Amino acid sequence: MKIDVIRLASGFCHSVSFGGAIIVLWAAFASPSQAAVHSDNRESGQELSQGSLVFIDSNGQRQQRLPLHTKVEMTVSGMTNRVTLIQTFENNTQDWINGRYMFPLPNDAAVDQMHLIVGDREIEGEIQEKKQAKRTFETAKQEGKRASLVEQRRPNIFTTAVANLGPNESLQVKISYQQQLAYQDGEFSLRFPMVVNPRYTPQIFNDQARRTLADDNSQALSLAALMEEPYQTANGNSNFEHMMQLMQHSVRQYSQSESTSPLKASLHISLNTGFELDSLQSVYHPVSKQVLSDGSIDIRLLNTDANRDFLLKWKPIIGSRPEAAVYKQTGLSHQTSALPAKDDYALLMLMPPQGNAEDIIDLPRELILVIDTSGSMSGESMAQAREALLEALSGLTEHDYFNLIEFNSNYRHFLPQSVPASSKNIKQARAFVNQLQANGGTEMYGALQAALKDVNQEQEELKRLRQVIFITDGAVSNESALFELITNQLGNNRLFTIGIGSAPNSHFMQRAAELGKGTFTYIGKQNEVKQKVTTLFKQISHPVVSDVQLSFSDATVPEYWPANIPDLYLGQPLMVSIKMPSHSQQQLVVSGNIGEQFWQRRLNLQANQSAAGLDLLWARQYMSALELSKSSLNQERVEKQVLALALKYHLVSSQTSLVAVDLTPAKPLSFDAINKQIDGGMPLGWQAGGILPQTSTSSRLNILIGCLLLLLALGLGWRKSTLSNENRVAH
Amino acid sequence: MSISFMAKHPVPCSLFLLGILVLGHGAYIQAKAYLAQFLIAQAWQNTLADQQTHKPWHWADTYPVAKLSFVTKLESIGFKHQVDSVYVLAGASGRTLAFGPGLVLSGAKIGEVGNTVIAGHRDTHFSNLAAVNKGDLLQVEANDGEVLLYQVVNTQIAHQSDTQFMAPSDDNRLTLITCYPFNQLSGGAEQRYIVEALLVNKPTAI
Lengths: 731, 206
Prior knowledge:
The complex is a heterodimer. Chain A is α+β, with helices and mostly antiparallel strands. Among the domains of chain A are: about 1-50 and about 700-730, no CATH class; about 330-355 and about 545-610, Immunoglobulin-like, CATH 2.60.40; about 365-540, von Willebrand factor, type A domain (Rossmann fold, 3-Layer(aba) Sandwich). Chain A is built from 15 helices and 36 strands. In chain A, strands 3, 4, 5, 6, 7, 8, 9, 10, 11, 14, 15, 17, 18 and 36 form a 14-stranded mixed β-sheet that branches. In chain A, strands 22, 23, 24, 25, 26, 27 and 28 form a seven-stranded mixed β-sheet that branches. In chain A, helix 10 runs parallel beside helix 11. Chain A is globular. By secondary structure, chain B is of the alpha+beta class. Chain B has helices at about 1-10, 10-50, 95, and strands at about 65-70, 85-90, 100-105, 115-120, 135-140, 145-160, 170-180, 190-200. In chain B, helix 1 (about 1-10) crosses helix 2 (about 10-50). Chain B starts with a helix and ends in a 7-residue tail after the last strand. Chains A and B meet through helix 1 and helix 15 of A and helix 1, helix 2, helix 3, strand 6 and strand 7 of B.
């Protein structure tokens, strides 16, 4: 029996020697990191428990957040919305500060104006090339002048920076943008993204000061410690003491101000629809409504602790729902020269005939679901994709045909050709989806080619509408070849892309969808799958008009955006921004295909309503089309085009910013030391979809538990065998 | 003999087997992370030679895009090139990260103007991020053999929902992401440790 134990023990040694080596390796790796982060732990814990008002991060960087009040004024007229945001930056500390605040705006917002308001003076912002604007702002900051800068981070994310805000002062930045209203199923809607926690981060300490704090002070700086300790007397000339004093002061001030002034956001809308309304509702927030004598409606947000997007919807009564409308404007909104305007800008809205209910149901449709099962999809992404597929399958009706294609290094069809969505076929498809495993490479070309190729070409009389739904994380290396394939082989197909995972290659998928005359949907979280897939399917289930074209009656084509007009689905109007020569007498001709039939409609440009800001909408659409076409080959050219457009139309873009400088110096130069730029500091509350990549495994825990179990087993085994040996000896 | 031993001592034997399994699982993750880098190194040599993408093994869904080195700063002798290197793979999916740090595909490519984002596991390839401080240098070898030098300008802790760190930028920026805290044993962390670095021609003292 003893021999057995020894054999077992030696076996154990053998088997763990590899693991043991790994543990040593791990210990060697882990020990310095543990030492290094020990002090950080406590601080980061504090950061959370303190509600992130004031905290000191791992670098000894103090991050303080001050209140910011946002006031939103909207004027809705016709199909457009003019919005003015007034951001009030308050400084309730004793320091001179530079602040920065990042905020979301709707995706299609054309930001064209900014004013810096100091007291009763209003300084208008200038549009400048992005780098130039930054330089203007930095120079003003160094000279102690008040200044503000509005930059675009992404098409829907902007930042406002302010410089030299004095102690207990406040200043306002007024930002204006133009926006097109959404109109679908006879209902107008407008959305305004609300920031959960509008606070901004002042940047008080310069680099030197922070280093002093971090290096000299071995004890951790915490909010509580700062508040409890008595004020230090300013006897020493050490930089550190000075900073310490400032910090204590700020913290006290801040804790007081926080209890007395809660943060605020207010919203006011002047709604001038021109229609008799059937319904008007704010979907998520309580509002007050008041009808004014001129017929417009005054709407105010009642509850200011808004924590989700503001969404207002209104529906004209059935008889007065607009079927076609042209709004027109002559010249630019921001006219630079005194010359008479050469161009007109128009916004066209046209609701195509919606047909009878029975036609809609009978439209034959073929759905090709393509799923990426490459190794990069494994785990969470695959689970999401599988759920999206199952959701898509359950959305099919008996009239639909469908097929599935999975691809990794190779591609594989579910069935050789599309089959009706009978319950038997759906059941088989579900089984097919459930056994999908993520493995291998991403060879998208073949799969895409197979999906776009119509195997039913011989059955020409049976023309179905083919919709290809492509689910992937977009991890491809041959983008341009794929774009070419889509352009050349699209035919009657429509390509809809669904992005999955924490950071898919959205640019690829967006561009692919645009070339494929479809849409791109991004699903960031598991719990969004059902809702997003259902929305997509609802949207694309009833196509009405395809191949929409626009021209004048003499067959010349005006400059219009979007240039590739997407198919129009049930309840969707055609919305186009047009630029044309002034005083054009011509008619506008809209044509397309409804099913197999040619459809055309003529619109008179004379009987139209005038509107403002249409040039901004036109330029904004032009710019986003340019940005989307950007590749490594034409990058420079696209950037130049965007720059020229943005400067001409006075718009904030990826290449331009608005900057305003108050020429009166505000800050005495002697305060320079505590007033420098520190990068970082973003608002809370802004979240794009998805999360940062998950970068932890439980390998160490497994190794540890494994070793403990082995030791336990060995210990027990040893004790038992000793006992039995003793027993034997006793006998 | 051994079967009778197992029958007589069911508890220690089953504990032993379970221990082997759990330990093996943990060791497998570590070993995979460690050993894969050798295969990736070979693929990287091929890539450097012909500037084409090479898969480290034929069923792989990724390929090396860069070699990332951590240069530890020692004030006394200037910048000492004490280098720890890892090979960076394309894509930051869970599968890829098991073999090496991954380049997030929604960000800028290696060396491009913009925000280049690389994520890695805190318990394997990026465990030494904890020792990276402001002012340290990061060296990135691109597939044409060019070596880019980045200097760390900021390190900070963020929640996983804070995707602004992956937002595009107009400078030449490198963002490294790993999970936080470093010494946590279990997986599924919600916090991230972020290292931000900017391209420099030659290092300056920060």
